[in-house]
Specification:
About 80% of the residues lie in helices and about 0% in strands. It is mostly helical and about 425 residues long.
Length: about 425
């Protein structure tokens, strides 16, 4: 690999990092704005859950379409389009003045939320299997950091510049800027270019999408366990994203400053967990094909344990609550980068966007209803009960599904490596 190519691929990572950082800021800060927006429109927890479920449902429906497009056309240009849509829909969300209009325009922001499979598969064609976990971990730092930036914008900046609508105008405008940067600055790569079997080839065959390979995705048992853990695993993230700030304010009595000084360190620890999880997964993967799955299973088990202890900490024991939340943040993200890398460890390059989009479709098919379910339980009992019940049950199921994948990953990984070796011989 030339030094120029090596430097350029890291430039692509930087561009994608800022795309994800600003997009996640735009997407996730709505959780911090719950009280402001709810008071503005006079809505309940259930209606709030419906607002957030709308965007998730739209994203769910569009995942297969984005996956199909990414496996057929230039991924960089499609990512630029996604960024353009992000900017435009966020502006629309800021303009509307009624709850019905806000519900519809917020749902439209889900269009670009399902655009990530193309980003991850393009990165997979710049970096080989032994580096992907770390690179995905770096990229996924953007999610918690975006959450933190969104929290600061919501709690400190929004009140100073005219409210939540002004913040949406800012983040929407940044989406348009990133769209231009990706369109002119990011190049596509041949699918499969970074696979080890093709490493020393100056020219390689272009692998095109085929329905036969797409069907192979569903013949691999590991993918079914990945789908199942995805279905359960996103429930806790959506519950925490959209309701945790309201829980701190309404049920634990935190003011804006207390929320900021409690959650900012927690989110920074969470951010480091993405990279640590990816790095640990890469290191374990070099020793055994089961490595990424083992790291993931430990993450969800301990994450569930410490969140349970945190939520059940007495309200006046703030230091104890903070310690347990920090421990939760260490383990929660360990599986994230490893799940993406595992999908690419067992699927052919030309259908990876479809495979990833299918995984996200299954995730969101269940998780889209997490905010509604949380709102219903919160209105009927309490937010504390909703958070504990949904998160612990979901992560417990994820642990069981990861145990299943441990028994299938060796066969499915070997099948892909044999397939790539056979293709390399025929070139």
């Amino acid at each position: 690999m030339s030094k120029e190519h090596s430097r350029y691929r890291w430039f692509v990572v930087v561009v994608f990092f800022f795309f994800m950082l600003l997009h996640q800021t735009d997407k996730l800060m709505i959780g911090s704005l719950q009280v402001q927006i709810s008071e503005d429109f006079g809505i309940s927890n259930t209606q709030w859950g419906l607002i957030n479920s709308g965007a998730l449902i739209v994203a769910t429906v569009l995942y297969p379409i984005w996956g199909y497009l990414y496996d057929h056309y230039a991924r960089a240009k499609l990512l630029s389009l996604a960024s353009l849509i992000w900017g435009a829909t966020t502006w629309l969300n800021a303009i509307v003045k009624t709850f019905g209009g806000f519900l519809v325009t917020r749902a439209s922001t889900g269009i670009d939320d399902s655009s990530y499979p193309g980003l991850y598969t393009l990165v997979a064609d710049y970096f080989g299997p032994n580096l992907r976990g770390k690179v995905y971990g770096i990229l996924q730092l953007a999610q918690p950091i975006g959450y933190l930036v969104g929290m600061i914008l919501a709690l400190m900046v929004a009140p100073a510049i005219g409210g939540w609508r002004s913040i949406f105008y800012i983040t929407g405008s940044l989406g348009l800027v990133i769209a231009v940067l990706i369109f002119f600055g990011v190049k596509d790569m041949p699918r499969g270019k970074a696979e080890p079997e093709f490493e020393n080839m100056a020219e390689m065959q272009t692998f095109k999408f085929s329905w036969a390979e797409a069907r192979e995705i569903f013949k691999k048992k590991t993918m079914w366990f990945i789908f199942l853990q995805g279905f359960a695993g996103v429930f806790p993230w959506n519950v925490i994203t959209y309701f945790f700030f309201a829980y701190l304010e309404k049920e634990r009595g935190y003011d804006a400053n207390s929320i900021l000084f409690t959650m900012a360190p927690v989110i920074l620890i969470l951010a480091s967990g993405y990279f640590v999880g990816g790095a640990l997964g890469d290191a374990a993967f070099k020793r055994t094909n089961k490595g990424r799955i083992i790291v993931s299973s430990v993450g969800v088990l301990l994450g569930a344990l410490f969140l349970y202890l945190a939520i059940n900490t007495p309200i006046d024991a703030r230091n104890q609550f903070f310690i347990f939340m920090c421990l939760t943040a260490i383990f929660m993200p360990l599986s994230s980068a490893n799940v993406i890398a595992t999908v690419y460890d067992v699927t052919a390059p030309e259908v990876r966007s479809t495979a990833q989009a299918t995984e996200y479709f299954v995730e969101n098919a269940g998780a889209a209803f997490a905010p509604i379910l949380t709102g219903l339980i919160a209105d009927a009992i309490s937010l504390q009960t909703a958070i504990v019940l949904i998160c612990t049950v979901a992560w417990g199921l994820c642990f069981l599904f990861y145990l299943g994948a441990i028994f299938t990953i060796d066969k499915d990984t070997k099948h892909l490596r044999d397939q790539m070796a056979e293709r390399a011989k025929s070139m």
